[in-house]
């Protein structure tokens, strides 16, 4: 991770920040931190998830990308998940805002998914998605958290139980089981390959 700016920012300044590039940032302890570039498969998986959830009747307004979630953490002030499934209440909290960010006191989405970028377990992106974000999203009370890891060919579906995610791993032809979306008819390989 490279620090994009040294000046400490508030959440409001972060939400309005635009450096004129397509660079993604997260706010870490008041400092902008540049996120790595997304690989092609990562973006294809996010688009594939949109198609899948639309096919089971989820309204487009409940699907979020490029929307932020404020968290309480020593690592970050706000996260930028790859994919969000909103409740009606969480979408209503950001509807019409010029900077879409669910604040701490806003309703939670029903599901957040992160597509892990390649790298060893010691990498910052692995630590963020596997170690930090499960704690942050659980602390918010988000019912379901998916870690989609094309590099390791697995998907971890986390269900919030007693304020901690209990994860089940899926790979290959295993049918994904989502407690929130029992009508999904989808295996891990389909997601990991973005339906290709």
From TrEMBL:
One Pfam family for this entry, by name?
Uma2
Record's superkingdom? Bacteria
Does the keyword field hold Hydrolase? yes
Q: Which SUPFAM superfamilies match?
A: Restriction endonuclease-like
Annotated Gene3D superfamilies: tt1808, chain A
For this UniProt record, give its keywords in alphabetical order, as a comma-separated list. Answer: Endonuclease, Hydrolase, Nuclease
Q: Kindly give the CDD domains that the UniProt entry links to this protein.
A: DUF820-like (cd06260)
Task: Output the InterPro entries linked to this UniProt entry.
Answer: Nuclease_put_TT1808, Restrct_endonuc-II-like, Uma2
Domain annotation Putative restriction endonuclease: ranges: 11-186
GO MF = endonuclease activity
Please indicate if the UniProt record lists Phosphoprotein as a keyword: no
Write down what this protein is called: Uma2 family endonuclease
What is the scientific name of the source organism?
Romeriopsis navalis LEGE 11480
